[in-house]
Design a protein that fits this description.
mainly alpha
Length: 175
């Protein structure tokens, strides 16, 4: 192998590892920023500026999970009149609708993201893998399909399965 070939190969590997490292750092930052907002209990008391930032962050999170634009609209329970092409506006400064049902879903999705980050801290690909692997607890469906098909009930079921602290919180409220 020539010196130039070795340089290019090494350079490409360095570029790959550098991109992967940057992507991991971005994913961690997204999840931390969303979790900070969630823990502050401000999901239902967001001003427009916060909803703009939250829209961008939640869309990036759903990208990391591999959802299509149609699936993003579905999982967030946007109105049926919402167009798939409108999703890109949420990356570019359009705020999330100030609707309790949407913000509740965002809150649960953030809880799921945090539980997956906690469960798989060393592998940024595991959340997407786990969400797309069939699971007996969800009727031999993937957790992602459970959330998309069952709506809020499916989202809560996935969160309860992943987040024991949330499960305890729910149990305390029931009892």
């Amino acid at each position: 192998m020539s010196a130039l070939g070795g340089f290019l190969k090494g350079g490409m590997l360095d570029l790959f590892y550098s991109r992967t490292h940057i992507q991991i750092q971005i994913q961690i930052q997204i999840q931390i920023q969303i979790q900070i907002r969630y823990q502050a209990g401000c999901m239902t008391q967001l001003n427009e500026e916060n909803r703009i930032e939250l829209a961008r962050l939640i869309m990036m999170l759903l990208d990391n999970w591999g959802l299509s634009n149609a699936e993003k609209l579905n999982i967030l329970d946007f109105p049926d009149s919402s167009r798939v092409r409108s999703v890109r506006q949420y990356y570019n400064g359009r705020p999330l609708p100030d609707e309790a049902k949407i913000l509740e879903r965002v809150e649960h999705l953030v809880g799921i993201a945090d539980a997956l980050r906690t469960s798989y801290p060393l592998n940024d690909q595991m959340p997407k893998f786990w969400l797309n692997k069939t699971n007996k607890l969800f009727g031999n469906r993937t957790p992602l399909n459970c959330m998309l098909e069952d709506g809020l009930d499916g989202i809560v079921a996935v969160r309860i399965h992943l987040d024991c602290a949330y499960d305890w919180e729910i149990s305390d409220k029931i009892l």
